[in-house]
Amino acid sequence: MPQLRADDAIQYVKGVGPRRAAWFASLGLKTVGELLEYFPFRHEYDSGEVAIEDLQLDQIATIRGEVVDIGGRPPGLRVEVDDGTGTCVLRWFNRERRASRIFRGATIVATGKVTLYDDLPEMVQPQVQVYEPDVVLSPPQRGQRQVGVYRGNAQLKNALIRRTVLAVLQHPRLPVEEIVPAPLRAKRGLVDREQAIRDMHAPPTDAALQQARRRLAYEELFLIELAMALRRDRRLRLQAGRKLPVTPEIDQRIRARFPFPLTPAQDAAVRDIVADLGSGRPMTRLLQGDVGCGKTVVALYACLVAVAHGCQAAIMAPTEILAAQHFERIGQYLAGSRVRAVLLRGGLPARQRREALAAVERGEMDLVVGTQALIQKDVAFNELALVVVDEQHKFGVLQRHEFRTKGIQPHYLVMTATPIPRTLGMTVLGDLDVSVIRASPPGRGTIETRVVTPAKWDLVMGYVRRRLEGGEQAYVVCPLIGEEPGQPSGEHPTADPPDPTIEPRGSRGAKAGNGRELTSVLAEHARLTQGPWRGLRVGLLHGSLPSGGKQQVIDDFAAGRLHAIVATTVVEVGVDVSAATIMIVEHADRFGLSQLHQLRGRIARSSRPGLCVLIAAGSGPRAAQRLAVMARTTDGFKIAEADLEQRGPGELFGTRQHGLPELRAADLVSDYELLEQAREDAFALVRGDPRLERREHAALLPALRRVFGDRLRLIDAA
Ligand code: ADP
Ligand code: MG
């Protein structure tokens, strides 16, 4: 056999030719190398050669027997095969090519999927080999073997892909180059790449398939982690950060601004940040923690370190409302200090705005708060040393912001209230440093969570009415704004593309799972105020209100002038009213768990016991089970893991949007341990050989380029 090369065209593989090669090309497969890495999406049992009497429906099997009859109406072809235990029919719809080769008395070996027709087992369009009657064949193989099942399309069917792959596998040496360095293969007990690829397509045993998959999954994860390790290494080596050491005096001065001692979890995060800021390297740290766990205080600590060094800091929020809330809260902490802070509002009169911007540019403002859009677009800084990005529930969309600043690029602190499952943290955000605040400040009340069916609506609302009359406040969240069917309510705080994590699941369809029209905010408001909540003061909040209108509703609610607000998920990011203790979510089964967790977080700020009612329309056992997690735990990390398991990383995270390659062998949920190993190995490798110059690492850069293309520019800068 001639030597096979990875860039050989598929066209020249046995049985392909130009016409079929075009079909392969429609799947993006042009070369033998690409075909070899086109893995089956599942495997099925091929039972090897079996006796005809043992054939089982729907299995793929191989039989061997004598041709006892040939017939069928042309152009079809019907062949009867007898092996002494029974008769099986082989059927083709187009005889021309076969008929010339099959003859009565021939020995035939046929492989195909078993169906039943007229009480006889039958194979439609099987693959066959035809032999002379007296040929001596090796004894039949028996036993279970798995074959790959491939994703094809209208023209290119699984069977042809499989056949073509098997033809390539006939070669004793495949054009497969090892990527994972030998010491790591030995350390982790991984089979070599060629073996893994063979076994992935045509595993001789279950164990071989598992080994192959594990090896290829490791490789995928290893390359991702390698990219992350390189990116991090480049950042730390090539970019300088402003040195902002924290002296005991500075530390004391900052802590004196807070009316409470920091919690141990906050202290730990502060220690991480202090180390970063003093290191002379740029900080890129993610601060994770549930709503209300005290991140803002930690972020303000960091800002004040910058200010103590005569520099500026910026806090960027996802919405105007949140920016205003940050500013107000920060203002309370800073009252009486000399720190000059400014809120960049969208609606500022032109002159005030000009003056504010000029003051920032001259360095007369220490702390600038605003939305990301505003700060990035408009502001020229004098001495910007730190940027805090509050992403709330949006995680990982860490853009590398460019600032108009004279100095070097600033330190970054990104806050997110969405607990990120560790696997995702290690991949998508794998080059960041992470601090996690898991425990909340003392004095928080507990929240009772109930999952109920819509039949309980009157009961729930009647009960809640009594609590509202007793002085509590409630949110009622609905998935849709108004009458127009199909309009999602998720307000997108900035001009970012729609974020899959904030849109109710399937909200684009107008119908709920049970065919009921989704309850709109307006209808729900009417239903409540004309029904069980008649006479109560109930506000209305949704993304289509002008921003002044929104603010008014929020102010009224915060001041206790409203008993409740009926809202879209805009409250998830927009509202921070610590007195509210009741959260009711309509169509809760339409939301992701992480989003429900965010919503529930809105009532976690009070010391009074809270109540969260999830109304799940048409909840089948699965919907109820999904939501049961919410009733069981308030630990955001546990909920995030459950969400990842339920929805998969794609939907939860939009992995592609984050530049992650599609995973073909690895699974971010089940390969957690493998991921940890791959990460450990990749980071160690980059520590020892940051430029991947060693000979045994020669295959790594080309592999990274193949996988990531130009998505990881920093790697190419090496
Ligand atoms: P996050 O930004 O994580 O949502 P915040 O920083 O806004 O949380 O804090 C939530 C609430 O907890 C605020 O009202 C804040 O004053 C309070 N808080 C923060 N840290 C502490 C602490 N160490 N002790 C007591 N209360 C705290
Ligand atoms: Mg906050």
Describe what this molecule looks like in 3D.
The protein is α/β, with parallel strands linked by helices. It folds into 4 domains: 160 residues, Nucleic acid-binding proteins (OB fold (Dihydrolipoamide Acetyltransferase, E2P), Beta Barrel); 94 residues, no CATH class; 155 residues, Rossmann fold (3-Layer(aba) Sandwich), CATH 3.40.50; 187 residues, P-loop containing nucleotide triphosphate hydrolases (Rossmann fold). The protein is 37% helix and 19% strand. It is built from 24 helices and 23 strands. Strands 11-12-10-14-16-9-17 form a 7-stranded parallel sheet. Strand 20, helix 17 and strand 21 form a beta-alpha-beta unit. Helix 7 crosses helix 22, helix 8 crosses helix 10 and helix 9 packs parallel to helix 10. The radius of gyration is 32 Å and the shape is globular. Bound molecules: adenosine-5'-diphosphate (ADP) and magnesium ion. The site of magnesium ion has 2 residues, from helix 10.
Descriptors:
718 residues, alpha/beta, Rossmann fold, six-stranded parallel β-sheet, 23 strands, globular, disordered C terminus, binds adenosine-5'-diphosphate, binds magnesium ion
